[in-house]
Lipoprotein (Autumnicola musiva), 186 residues
Amino acid sequence: MKLKLYSLAFFFILLSCKNGADNENVEIEDNGTNNEYNAVGPGIPVEEDASNNESVDRNNTSPEIQAGNYIKTGHKTGQNCQCYCLNISLSETSNLCLVENEMYITSTFERDGDRINVFYNSTSEENKNSDLPWDKFDKDKPIAVLEPQPNGQIHLDWKGFSINGELAVDYAIFGKKNLEGTYEKK
């Protein structure tokens, strides 16, 4: 008898938890404005098809990264801009300073959606370091990624050098200190 009562109670509990929405869109009225939310996750905006004249991208407020000269925030224009500046060009190579007065490379920039990937190209004429295996570094795997910020700045995330598709751990740190950070257009 107890088993039947427990089974019946469990059945009613399961039945009461089901709200009948089963992954439907639910209209929620908030201060006179209608916002659609996915019943699977409260507070998650439903992205409508653009043909319905609904806004698809509600979170992207970052502008597209423009080509040009950028300086690392916290550094004045009069300082050694060679090591704290980026010259972003999608059509030609640019010099990057990894270690001031010692290690310089040329790089290429390639747009990937709203980001720009930075690729190692070769050592620069200013490079004085011949200890690294420059000829073994991958040229088809990004060494850094530029991401737009909502305030018009860009953030450089240093990934490091790779050899045969794998992160070259011994050399990954070079460039991080000088290059990683936030930049603003000059």
Observations:
- The CA atoms of residues 27 and 112 lie 36 Å apart.
- The chain has two domains: 2-52, 68-185.
- Residues 17-60 have pLDDT under 50 and may be disordered.
- The radius of gyration is 26 Å.
